[in-house]
């Protein structure tokens, strides 16, 4: 019983704290983000299974996590509001070569982040070559190049 | 799924009102995280200055130091300090309530008790002690086995009959899951 409750509590807490920390916080932009994720997983593991190292406990924990995830995705399909709440929304941060400073400040993105994505994804050199830049729900920036 | 809107040439489900609310919620969330961390540093979730509590018996013979906040399956400590007068012939006799002991696991008692006696709702520990005129101390190292509020009581055995006042201490801890 406690494996299910523990896993559910951890799942919901992680959902909340990652959501509140913002889309960009753990989007694996730097090596340190990845290290942070590893450390978090290590801490989480202890709380989920406690000192019961049986296979049953592990199976129950995994089933709870995957079950909650599937359940939530089914619910999200029916309710766009819930989907928005859990997955956030994409935000346009650059339009026709002109960054939108207010939104970028709110999302903690600067021009170099956009240029970074432009180089990596499209091989672009300057902001003016970008038609649209969007911060996706995943925390990644997608780039649509200027035509012609 | 709501239909994507059109922004310029982009078909995108942009919702700037939601975005603004989200930014506000994030700011509130950070403030809450900061408060939680401060509270944790102060000891609201376990070890820390706010968690340390002391209770003294009416007669002054027994002082109990305990954790106001503890955590499930985590170590905790109960320190009993006895005034020089509380040492009776043959040693110290101190009891703890069964209600408390049922919900903790005693890892170690320093020093080891000489004997333990069941007395209904109490468990009386006897420690050999010499009357040296100095206060004595016994430390119980515990592991909390329950979640929620845990009430406990400790006292000097036999004092209520002799001096007319019970050397008894009540204490209560909150145990986080």
Automatic annotation (TrEMBL), chain A:
A Pfam family annotated for this UniProt entry: DUF421
Compartments where located: Cell membrane
InterPro entries in the record: DUF421, UPF0702_alpha/beta_dom_sf, YetF_N
Limits of the YetF C-terminal domain: 78-147
The keyword Cell membrane appears for this protein: yes
Keywords from the UniProt entry: Cell membrane, Membrane, Transmembrane, Transmembrane helix
Source organism superkingdom: Bacteria
Regions crossing the membrane: 58-75
Gene3D superfamilies named among the record's database cross-references: bsu07140 like domains
Domain YetF-like N-terminal transmembrane per the UniProt entry, residue ranges: 12-65
Coiled-coil segments: none
Membrane topology: Multi-pass membrane protein
Family: Belongs to the UPF0702 family.
Protein name: DUF421 domain-containing protein
Organism name: Deinococcus phoenicis
